[in-house]
Amino acid sequence: LKIGRMVLGMVQTNCYFFFFLGCTETIIVDPADKGDEIYKKMTEAGFRVAGILLTHGHFDHIMGAPKLRELTGARIYALDAEKEVCEDPHVNCSAQTGRPCSVKPDVYVKDGEEIELAGIAFRVIATPGHTKGSCCYYFEQDEILLSGDTLFFFSVGRTDLPTGSMGELTRSLRDKLAVLPESVRVYPGHESKTTIGHEKAYNPYWA
Question: What is the DSSP string of 156-177?
């Protein structure tokens, strides 16, 4: 499994794309606010977008999703608990930026659901805290976790925005992520990658 990254948008969001070597299909994760730019780059590289995954509904992760869906025909996936955040510009904080946006995912997934797109299998892990419907995507076979804004290198996502809760976030770390192998590589929504083992050892938010 190969991973590419584009750093996009006003707050430097990590947009990832996943594919198997030699395969022309890819999965896009958190398309920031650059749906047309992502489409152009994927098309030039010979890829067809098979799906668009959202780790949560904040504006800096979703603004590009509607345009990318329009251009590719790919479906948008998000956790079922994140419906309000995705669809309400005030809750997803886009209204406060002067660029209100709303996205209606095509598929609302559930905690623990197993999904396969572009021949790539992964599992949904609900990790409320940064928002009530934040989630991670776990590629168990390749020991990869897409953590969105739940877990960062030496930090976690802020919890002072609508639907956030530090209590929920610390429970998500303890109950959902601490059980993963320490060798799992973590690809967060901002900044650099890390591992579960590193964060368990050094992250001050990891009780």
Answer: E----STT--HHHHHHHIIIII
How far is Cα 205 from Cα 32, in angstroms, rounded to an integer? 26
Axis-axis angle for helices 65-72, 35-44 (nearest 10)? 40
Task: Pull the structure tokens for residue 49.
Answer: 């977008």
Cα–Cα distance, 101 to 178 (Å, whole number) = 34
What's the half-sphere exposure (Cβ side, CA atoms, 13 Å) at 202? 9
Task: Report the alpha-carbon distance of residue 169 to residue 128 in Å, rounded.
Answer: 6
Q: What share of the chain is helix, strand, coil (3-state, %, to 5)?
A: 25, 30, 45
**pLDDT above 80 for 207:** no
pTM of structure: 0.97
The whole-angstrom separation of Cα 128 and Cα 176 is 10
Token output for 122: 């992964």
Contact present, 205 and 170 (Cβ < 8 Å): yes
Q: Is 171 a residue whose pLDDT tops 80?
A: yes
What are the tokens at 160?
Answer: 């002072």
For residue range 59-115, what is the model confidence (pLDDT) as tens digits? 999 999 999 999 999 999 999 999 999 999 999 999 998 899 999 999 999 999 999
